[in-house]
Amino acid sequence: MNFVVLYNTIMTKINKFAWENLPQPILALAPMAGVTDSPFRQVCLEAGADVVYSEMISVTGLFHHSPKTERLFKFTSREHPLIIQVFGAVPEHFAYAAKYITEQVRPDGIDINFGCPVRDVIKTGAGSYLMKNLALAQEVLAAVRENTTLPVSVKTRTQVGEVTVLDFLDAVKNVPLQALMVHGRSFSQKFSGAINIELIKEAAKKFKGIVLANGNMNTPEQIQAVLSQTGCQGAGLARGVLGKPYLFTQTREFLSTGHYTKPRFSEVVQTIMKQAQLMQAEKGVHGIIEMRKHLGWYVHDFPGARNLRNQLYRCSTYKEIAEILLENSTRFG
Ligand SMILES: Cc1cc2nc3c(=O)[nH]c(=O)nc-3n(C[C@H](O)[C@H](O)[C@H](O)COP(=O)(O)O)c2cc1C
Q1: What's the whole-number average pLDDT of the chain?
Q2: Which residues does ligand 1 sit against, CB inside 6 Å?
Q3: Which of 170, 161, 168 has its CA nearest to residue 189?
């Protein structure tokens, strides 16, 4: 038994959560900054997500005790399994963050972002640029591994510059990692275009832990196709669940029966109200304002969506949202 396998076996016994104990195929809520906050994670878990990721959180912000950064760590006892995703480019900051998260935040796992293409992130050497800086990536992973007993996972692109996910996996093969989420697009594709099935499939063969495919998996049919084409143990769902947490329920139904049902307006309303209640309880009026984008996504496919969305965008309380949805419920059934 090699060191990585031995380490994973021991850690699985110590931690209550283990990636390999999740039912497969694993349907995960992928990390999305400004979206996968505590209320949305709770709604997705209720809809059938097997595991949820936080928004990416800056290890440098945490190192400098930024209150804004510290607030992002808040979660409830209902949010498990929860993976906290961090980003940065300074090993010392990662070491501090890993210790802090393990001792004070206590989620189920720590994920490191190697895929973000946003200019403000890459200009510091973090996100996608960390994936192509293999020496620094090794240092970062060692710093995290040495300062946590939690399962550590990574989220990568299929390719950044000359470096493919396979090169990356070769470079970090001595670090015990429990899971990998591969965004099937290269850095230069940013967020559009087809995913690279072949590279995801090769990564799934090479990596010893759990591999989740990610990118363009917006319907149960697409999710099933990518899982069977790549041999991955699960999928990371991102933009496909915006306004559609029920994609988890539908996919589960489709994978076991071959068909799935469209939710009724009243069911979507229940989900909206649940999220709005949690947002208001957590952040007051500001929470409802933050939720406006979700309201637009939720009603996007309903007839007369534009008018309904405009009314909802003016709401600043849970009660106002409830009244508007009630008025419209007779129209949609
Ligand atoms: C609004 C938004 C925010 C995102 N934030 C993060 C993030 O914090 N960390 C991360 O690793 N990926 C982030 N992503 C990337 C997604 O996790 C995912 O890899 C990407 O959207 C591709 O999947 P999709 O085609 O299903 O959307 C974000 C994507 C979106 C649209």
Answers
A1: 95
A2: 30-35, 55-56, 85, 113, 115-116, 155, 183, 191, 214-217, 238-240
A3: 161
